[in-house]
Amino acid sequence: xxxxxxxxxxxxxxxxxxxxxxxxxxxxxxxxxxxxxxxxxxxxxxxxxxxxxxxxxxxxxxxxxxxxxxxxxxxxxxxxxxxxxxxxxxxxxxxxxxxxxxxxxxxxxxxxxxxxxxxxxxxxxxxxxxxxxxxxxxxxxxxxxxxxxxxxxxxxxxxxxxxxxxxxxxxxxxxxxxxxxxxxxxxxxxxxxxxxxxxxxxxxxxxxxxxxxxxxxxxxxxxxxxxxxxxxxxxxxxxxxxxxxxxxxxxxxxxxxxxxxxxxxxxxxxxxxxxxxxxxxxxxxxxxxxxxxxxxxxxxxxxxxxxxxxxxxxxxxxxxxxxxxxxxxxxxxxxxxxxxxxxxxxxxxxxxxxxxxxxxxxxxxxxxxxxxxxxxxxxxxxxxxxxxxxxxxxxxxxxxxxxxxxxxxxxxxxxxxxxxxxxxxxxxxxxxxxxxxxxxxxxxxxxxxxxxxxxxxxxxxxxxxxxxxxxxxxxxxxxxxxxxxxxxxxxxxxxxxxxxxxxx
Length: 504
Description:
Layout: H1 2-12, H2 18-31, E1 60-65, H3 86-94, H4 112-142, E2 145-151, H5 168-178, H6 221-238, H7 278-293, E3 298-300, E4 303-305, H8 306-314, H9 316-324, H10 333-349, H11 374-385, E5 396-405, E6 408-419, E7 425-431, H12 441-459, E8 466-472, E9 477-479, H13 487-495, E10 499-502
Parallel strand pairs: 1-2, 3-10, 4-6, 7-8
Antiparallel strand pairs: 5-6, 6-7, 8-9
Helix pairs in contact: 8-9, 8-12, 10-11
């Protein structure tokens, strides 16, 4: 099954991505002549629909072979051959193990008519070989049955206005069944006569209607629902009634009974002594509070975004809680403003790239409370034009990457990469929010550390030749951290998440 191939690739690849899967499939097709055909297993408890090729070597008690009509099985005659169709010629060369029928050209000096006759004879030979191969395939279909074999054709297809003719294979079977000894082989149940010339396709005039979604009880729906209501009524009658609390004239004058002695066992409340289930609720709440006081554990996903790395460096416990119980994030107007600014910046630099949903620009920015509108966007554009980066031209923009840290695939997208005069590079991430607090700058710098290592790997250079910076557009400030984490530190950061188990 193709799903098994994809699952095996995802389990064995360092970074299981869609481009990697496509490369794997292309390599398998070129170097190994395609993937190994999937194996079909006979299932006795179901109806299996498959091709004749897939049924080779298998047997079922009952086999049905439908669609034995002309130009279906056997298929229609080929309109051309490898001599006239370049695509067919490429296929004939690729299938070098199957030599086509020999082409016998006339001797030198023959006229054009002789050559055309030789080519037509070659086409006829190819068609005869095709028909022989389909006949062998038909034999495979007929020999898959252990007990019952059903063979059929049809006059009218599901669509189309012209009737079909019986297949040559079906006609031959009918002649055998009607001939001497045919009754010992099988029975010809029905053979429809050819329809009238002016008769239309009866299948086209049938209007098919159905109820959706279908009622699982069908005609028994009323009886089933009535019976279910009777059962519920009996259960309600058997349910014990809860005692009513005595009315109190003064609700503030609540006299509590003395606390029971724990050693006497009088404080133990069972189901009969706690009909309301309050004691059980209290036990659950206390257990939940005790579990919340412990450091949370989490199963790391197979992939993390760079924004998640920033959250990991800032508060690993909070990230573990979010991974255990993911909830939708509230709408962030600042992210929308950052997206609009990045779109403008892409047009300014002449770039056209696609963005992943969780890689939207501004996803790792600080939150703000104002709505992104045209006025704020114009202010951001003016601030950028006044910055040091307005006069520089990036060598790359919106560069996506994936790398592996501690067995987890980390993916991200670099906003822009600029070439430096000394032969190095500077990776810049545009920020439309405010400057981070001093105690958070080391955490947000994890984003630049990942970008720096990713660009160094893409260029196959040492990370020391790559610099990284945040440019806060509104403030016109560029932060260039000097103590970015190296590959080992990022590895330790991911490996330090409190995990119960790490998913492959």
